[in-house]
Each structure stands twice: as structure tokens, then as C-alpha cells.
Amino acid sequence: MAGGTVAKGLILLGAGVAAVALLSHAAQAQEAIKPEPTQNAQQAGEAKPDVQGSTLLDKIMLISRTGESAIKALASVSHVDQEQIERRMAATPNELLRGVPGVTVQADARRTASSINIRGLQDFGRVAVIVDGARQNFQRSDHGTQSTFYIDPELIKSVDVIRGPVANTYGSGAIGGVVMFDTKDAEDYLKPGETWATSLTGRYETNGKGWTTSATGAYKFNDNFDVLGNIVYRDYSDYKDGDGNQVGGSGFDVLSGMLKSTIRPTENSTLKLGWIGNSESWNEISSGKPAYDLDMKQNTFTGRYNLTDEDKSWLDLNINLSYNKATLDQTSLIPLGGRFDPITGRPVTLPAGSKTTYDIGTFGIDVWNTSRFETSGINHELTYGGDWVSDDVETTGLAAGDAFYTPGGKRNVGGAHIQDKLTWEWLEVIAGLRYDSYSLKGSTSETSGDRVSPRITVGVSPFEAPGLNSLQLYTTYAEGYRSPSLTETFISGLHPAGVSFPFLPNPNLKPETGKTWEAGLNYTADGIFQPDDALRIKAAYFNNDVTDYIDGVQLSAFDPTSGCRRGGMIPICFQYQNFAKAKINGFEFESVYDAAWGFAGLSASVIDGHTISYKGVRADLATIPSSQVAAQLGFRFFEDRLTIGGEVQYNGKPEGNAAARDYTLVNAFASYKANDNLKVDFRVDNIFDVKYANPLNATTTSTIYEPGVTFKLGATMRFGG
């Protein structure tokens, strides 16, 4: 890490620790919530904390395969719950994950299609995005982010984030980490004794004049069968940046819906069946005017089955089946000249109405079981299973269109895993192995590979003295394995617009291997100043070496060893190639202090990274995000019916990013619950109207500035009986 970044990181860290001490050991940018143990938590022996001031970090991770809470996990994990989502009045995934350390969301001006960056890694499956157990693998090659997903925050109950390759039980390829979205259930709307409930929500945003309307209905047929239906419509015009300039192409309209049913065939089993769909349309801008009309349709079907038995500690079986279908139609609105046939190189004009279609179908199956037992005083949680994901990609379009950027083909990835979590008094050890294999099949060639990846974690609670007995220290070494994508392997042809130059396929690409060392701590304290307050802290330092890292490079036609032959207007070629490694390291901190009067929060992340070629040449890694420090303070009044507060987030320029700038955002929020059936929310984002851009968008052809000051007002009414 460069000296300036180190100094800045130490200053930020010191300021953070001081703030924690001064604010009653203040906290990460996450609000407090009373924990509600889940079935898995009860099986794992998690007890609900005694103090009323238990915090968000105590919340059981809903998709955790060992039923642990974030504060108990010997890993860098975060949990975003329903209260946070509502308080942020989130309209996009970026707003859902704001303030989570080590996590940044890259999106274009439209904001809804997003790519998640964890610790400087993103795109092509490096971060596994999972919605109700379904992998989100849509990918369209373009300038900027490559792999995007869409999920409406109105459908989401909670988000769990696992940073680094330690999540090797969740599937193949996630060398950066895993983000799991869990959607709402009927029981989230039904009160005790109710058989039906409806909820209506309306929101308005001043910047972009954005409207959101949402309607939800839940019905409980009996104790073993309930259903939920939801529909959301968002209509946004182009927003203005901090200088008051309208950002073209930032408007959109989205129609989303969800149907979900929970069935309990026996007292020990649960089956959840779900459908999530969305239809979205928007325009893309070229030379300052609309050039394309785009229409995205996506349908996700999921089935999740769980079988447990209190009398059989060896049985906690889970089976997930999913199918995700995403189709994007891109239609030119005007004749597009200055293009070239990707095969012949001859000038071509695309007529208005030309269409390109991207169609990706993803099927997945994930099966695992956790057995809990004791040997010689040591408690075991043994998790074992397997998973398989298949992508079927088809792209169609005219010559000189954009279809060839995203080559079609079939991709299969799968694997098996086993992990044992051993607990003995003050010592906890997690040991695991994962086997991965993959195959890629394009129109002209095939490739495949496999590997075994280990994980070992050791955690200790070395102190018995009051105030220190809840301090837990851990260290981890973990490896992850990502296969090359279809696009990285098979892209070919001439660049069709602006200037022509060849894209070269590379069927000899090696898979990436992430090798991460991490050291961290967890700390809890209850009853610090009053009986019902609580403090939770997590911190970690990590070092990730990604060997055979894949990135795009420009090759010179004048270099006889490059394999590039001049075939376009300029003497270069583009090809995805392996680097010897990408080296990424950083520090993350999150904490939360909660009491009856309110909550305070503090989080921070400092990340640095670069690539090293096989010849030893070092280069900056373009996907390194801003260093961030986020603070939050909230107050509760009138028996928790009124909550008001504010947020401050500082974002530091990444090293080596000439287009990036430092910036600070200030937000405010308020929420009033008039009664059990009416809630009003108010929020102001970017109060000081700062003009800023996400540094990750520096790879795009032009700078995309984010929204300026935005006022939000919303209300939710429910009825039930």
C-alpha cells in the first residue's frame, strides 16, 4: 500500500477508534434491531441476548448454513435488515448496501442494474449474487461494469454479505465474496391471530421526480400454508447532478412482482416456492441523444426445502432449486453510422429499428446438510453438500451490432464441499475443503478444469476478566477458484464502432485462484452505561493474492510475440489474459452501539490493490473502490414511534485513479409510526448537493455523475384481520 494511503488509513482508523470511545463505544453505520432467533439459530444453540439493547450484529444471518449471528462469525460478514432498508428508502441495490464496509456498488446512470464490488473484486462471478438461493449471472459486455443484476428493494427482507473466499459452501467462483438477498414472507406482514393482511406504499423523490407505488397481500390458509403477493412500480425521470446538470439516460421505469408460498408438509419440514419477475425499460444515450431503447425482462423461479428433527441432531437438510431467465432487447432508435462489420471490417450503417437480443438462462441446484454432534467434549457442526450451476447464453443481432461482444455458449460449474466447525471452551476451529470443476463450450472450442480449495480458521477467546471475556480473536486462510467466463474466453471479431480493431479469443485462459489471509476480532459488551445498552465491534485486516488474475489487455500489432495482427483501423488488438497475480489488501471496521435513547454507528474500509504481470510489471487495479468512513447517529422518541438521525460518509480517492476525487456526503432521515397500521418516512440524501462520481465508473467512456440533493417522502398503510 502506498505511503499516502497508509497514512490516511491510519488517521481514519485512529479517528474511528476515538469516536467509538467518545460515543459510548460508537458504532457502524447500521441501525439496531431486537434479535429474533431462527430455527437454525435454535438448532445451533444461539440464545437470544438478555439485554433489550441487543444490536443488529446479533441478528441471526438468515441464510447462514450454521445459523450463527454476524458478531459470532469468525469471518467478515454484515447483515442489513428490514428496518435499515425502510429507513434508507432504498430504490436501488446501491442504496441497500450503502455503508457496508468493503462493499461498493457500480452502476450506470440508470442505477437499477448493478454490479457488486467486494474488496476490489467484481464482474464475471467473482462476487456471487444470490436471490432466494438463485444465482444472478446476467452479463452484457460494454464499457464499464460487465456483470449486472436487478432486484427491487421493496421485495427484500434482509441482505447478508460475506467478504472474501471463506464462503466456500455457497458455490463456485466467489473469490470476492457472496451477497445473499432474502425476500419477504407472508409472516412478515401477518400479526399474531391474523389470517390476511394488505400493505400499500407510496413514495416520491424530488430529484428525477421519481414515483414508487407498491401493494402487498398476504393470506394464511392454516398453520401449514400461506401465500404472499407483491407488485411494485417505479417511474423515474432523468436526475440532476450536484451542479444542477441533467444526466441523460438516467430515467427508467420498472414493474416488479413476486409470488411466494410457504408450505409445512410436516412439523419438521418447510417448503418455500417463489417467483420474482421484473420488466424494465430505458434509453441509452449516444452523442448526447437517445440512441437505443432497451427492454429487460427477468423471471426467477425458486424452490427451497428444509428438513430438521430435534431428535436427530445429524439432520438439517436443505435442497435449493432455481431457474433464472433474463432477456434484454436492445433496439436502435436512430440510424447508427461509423460502424464496421466485425468480420470484414467494411463500413456499415445500422438502420433504425435494428435489434440485438441477449438471452441468459441459469439453472442451479444446491444441496447440503449439517450434522451436529459431540466427541470428547468438542462440539462439531459438520456441513457437507454439493452444488451445480449451468448458464446457457444466446446473443443475436445484425453485423456491426453489439451481439458479438457477449458471445453465446454453455457454461457449467459445480462442486462439492465439506466443513467442520469445532468448538471447545475458548477455542473454535473451522476446517473445510471444496472441490470445483467447470466446462465452457463456445461455437468453435471447449475448455475445462478443476481444483481443490482449502479453508482453515482458528478463533480464540483468551481472556476471562470482565470486559474482555467477550473478545474473540481469529485468523483465517482460505482459497477460492473462479473459472473463466464465456466472454473472457471466446470474444472475437472486430470492434464495430468508432474505430475498428480485433478482439482475440483466448481458450487457454487459466482459472483464477484467490488466496486470502485474514486476521480479525469480534467484541461484545452489554450494560455499559445502563442495563439495556449494547456494543458490538468487528474488525479485520486481509491480504488477498489472486493468482492468474484475468483482465483485458491491449496488444501491439508491431510486437511479433503478441499474436496480434493488424486487422482494423489502428494497430492494436484486445484480449483477456492472465496476470501473474492481483494483490489486494485492506482493513475493515464496523460497530454498533444501541440504547433506549437511540443508536450510533461507525464503519470504515481502506483497500489498496494492483496487478503484477508474469514479467513483473506492476499496474494499478481499476476496480479498487474508494476508502470509506461512514458514521450514523439516531434518536428515538415517543416510545420508539419517532426516529430521527443523520449520516456522514467520507469517500477517499483510490490510488492510481486519475479520474477520481475525494468527496463527503451528508444525509438525514426521519421515521414516524403513527400507529400499528400507518408509517411515514422522510429522507434527504446529499444535503449539500455535492457533485461526485463513483470512482469505479472511471473505466466508462465518459464520467457519470451521481444525483445531487434528493428529498424523499413515503407512507405505508396496512390492513389486516
UniProtKB/TrEMBL annotation:
SUPFAM superfamilies: Porins. The keyword Transmembrane applies. Belongs to the TonB-dependent receptor family. It holds the Pfam family TonB_dep_Rec_b-barrel. Residues 1-29 form the signal peptide. Its main location: membrane. This is TonB-dependent hemoglobin/transferrin/lactoferrin family receptor. It is a multi-pass membrane protein. Residues 286-687 form the TonB-dependent receptor-like beta-barrel domain. It is found in: Cell outer membrane.
